[in-house]
TrEMBL record:
Keywords: Acyltransferase, Repeat, Transferase. It comes from Paraburkholderia pallida. The keyword Signal does not apply. PROSITE patterns: HEXAPEP_TRANSFERASES (PS00101). Belongs to the transferase hexapeptide repeat family. GO terms for cellular component: cytosol. This is Acyltransferase. One of its GO terms (molecular function) is O-acyltransferase activity. InterPro entries: Hexapep, Hexapep_transf_CS, Hexapeptide_acetyltransf, Trimer_LpxA-like_sf.
Length: 222
């Protein structure tokens, strides 16, 4: 029996031979794989970030209604119904925003659509309103993110500087007072206010108005 040592073959030389003779990916294969990784990054991370950056800092602040809404529909995937308006200065994020018809969203409103945010018909949302669908668990060691959809029913009215927390449903015809912090569902045709928001009184159910607000040059002059 002939040993490996007598043939001049050692473990080190055998390992070196195996490494040098194992098939390695060609330069073209490695280049293609790298391009694929770059494309995936551009498609899933860079493109959405760029679209929302341009939408929020250029189109939402400088462009008229038609161009602004076109960009939001085409590149930010915001579903906007007929005769609805999103005023200048609003901040939009996420691909899951659905807005009904004849809905008015006033200046400097924050719309968080990273998970579904559904706003009904003839809804009025006043200035500086904050609507969030994501939060964090303060008791979790890893500070995990909690995703909870928000629904705002038809003919609801959200007062200025109100905060709608994740997971809240604002019922049809409900009114949220200015500066209220809504942490739980609001029953239909009720008026709530305060921090946290509490029931104040009922609202009439005889609501026939249709909201339509397109002021000149995004001022309050109609």
């Amino acid at each position: 029996m002939i040993s490996r040592a007598s043939c001049g073959v050692t473990k080190r030389s055998l390992r070196r031979w195996c490494v040098s003779n194992v098939a390695k990916p060609s330069l073209v294969t490695r280049a293609v794989e790298r391009l694929r990784r770059v494309w995936r990054y551009l498609r899933w991370r860079f493109k959405p970030a760029l679209c929302f950056y341009l939408g929020n800092h250029l189109f939402m602040n400088w462009m008229p209604y038609g161009i602004r809404h076109w960009f939001l529909r085409r590149f930010c995937m915001v579903q906007i119904g007929p005769d609805s308006s999103i005023a200048m200065g609003c901040f939009v994020t996420g691909y899951h925003i659905e807005i009904g018809s004849n809905t008015v969203i006033n200046r400097y409103t924050y719309l968080d659509g990273r998970v579904p945010l559904k706003i009904g018909n003839n809804v009025n949302i006043s200035h500086y309103t904050l609507i969030q669908t994501l939060t964090h668990d303060p008791q979790n060691p890893d500070f995990v993110c909690l995703c909870k959809p928000v629904i705002i029913g038809d003919h609801a009215w959200i007062g200025a500087r109100a905060i709608i927390c994740p997971g809240v449903t604002v019922g049809e015809g409900a009114v949220v007072g200015a500066g209220a912090v809504v942490t739980r569902d609001v029953a239909p045709y009720t008026i709530v206010g305060g921090n946290p928001a509490r029931y104040i009184k009922d609202r009439t159910r005889d609501l026939r108005y249709r909201s339509r607000y397109f002021p000149f040059f995004d001022t309050d002059i109609q």
